[in-house]
Amino acid sequence: MQLVLQVKERLKNDYHELPVGKNGRDDESMIFWFLKDRKFAVDEAVQKLSKAILQTFDCRLFLSSCKKWRQEFGVSHLSEDSVKGAAKTGKAYVHDLLDEKGRPVLIVVASKHFPGMLDPIEDEKLCVFLVEKALSKLPEGKEDILGIVDLRSYGLANADLRFLTFLFDVFYYYYPKRLGQVLFVDAPFVFNPIWQLAKPLLKQYASLVRFCSVKTVREEYFTEEALPATFRD
């Protein structure tokens, strides 16, 4: 594909110090994956791929960077028990059933999140644990999940720009192409200011966001049997 060759040439000219070989700057299969993630925008693919490789401790491979992050964050040690403090708030969970497209569903209840009530790292651990849990439910042939942010009863006390950007950064840097769409459900007027601040920080992932109503969730995303209980009322 011509776009793969364009990215490959750009990386060679602009980032010649990057390693080559499998998962290196000349790995065409990896280049294609990043092009797909960036919707075949060459400039964005080059920027993200080069940054992913450069961010590793020894400037080797993106996969090494992911492995390093997972080790430092302790992803393999996360469990229901280790995140129970944050989970018992009910602020986020993985739905038991799949949506109409066969995707696992991660639900966030914004009105139950209060910045400062817990150590931010506890919220981050819950976030990563639930992402891992949702991905573990992917049926064969499926690659991405659906995120739903329930904004009913959301107020200024629930605003948390830091956590919102963390959530999207996790997908952007460590789970590329795993977030299929994010629904912001029944967003009140008071949510608009934080959205205007967050939107530029979310990069192209902001395009995955759809503002919609509970009615839309019911009619377009779930069968009657699979509809999450919180959206039945």
Shape: globular
**What is the topology, as strand order, of the major beta sheet?**
1-2-3-4-5
Measured distance between first and last alpha carbons: 49 Å
Largest sheet: 5 strands, mixed
- The helicity comes to 40-55%
Low-pLDDT residue intervals, each spanning 5 or more residues = 56-60
Label the structural class: alpha/beta
Strand content: 5-15%
How many H/I helical runs? 9
| Cα radius of gyration in angstroms | 19 Å
Number of strands: 5
State the order of secondary-structure elements, H for helix, E for strand.
HHHHHEEHEHEHEH
Summed over residues and divided by their number, the pLDDT gives a mean of: 89
Search tags:
233 residues; alpha/beta; five-stranded mixed beta sheet; globular
Task: Lay out the secondary structure.
Blueprint: H1 2-14, H2 28-37, H3 42-54, H4 62-73, H5 84-87, E1 92-94, E2 105-109, H6 120-136, E3 145-150, H7 161-174, E4 179-185, H8 192-198, E5 209-212, H9 214-221
Parallel strand pairs: 2-3, 3-4, 4-5
Antiparallel strand pairs: 1-2
